Amino acid sequence: FDAIAKRRRVFKVETIGDCYVAVCGLPDPRKDHAAVMVRFAKDCLVEMQQQLTALESALGPDTTTLGMRFGLHTGPVTAGVLRG
Fold it and tell me: Alpha carbon of 57 to those of 62, 65, 68, 79: distances in Å?
């Protein structure tokens, strides 16, 4: 997902457990930040599906039970610490 983030100009904050935390529009504001994040999420989902297909071919059908979900928030940032 890091390569997708770089291509979409999304800033990866950190990975916490199984959560990939990323932002768009920081530190430089972008009017298209919400659209960029939706495209980033879609690209990540496509990548995940490709990886699952490869796993299924190599290991069998029981490996495709993995899932992925996304949570998006838009609005002003009031405070925070960014690490990358």
Answer: 11, 14, 20, 45
pTM: 0.81
Burial (CB count within 10 angstroms: exposed 0-12, middle 13-18, buried 19+), residue 79:
exposed
Which residue's entry shows tokens 């770089």? 6
State which H helix or E strand residue 77 sits in: none
Q: Which amino acid is at 79?
A: A
Average pLDDT over residues 63-70: 80
User: What dihedral do alpha carbons 65, 19, 69, 26 form, nearest 10°?
Assistant: -150
Q: What is the pLDDT of residues 21-48, one digit of tens each?
A: 899 988 788 899 999 999 999 999 999 9
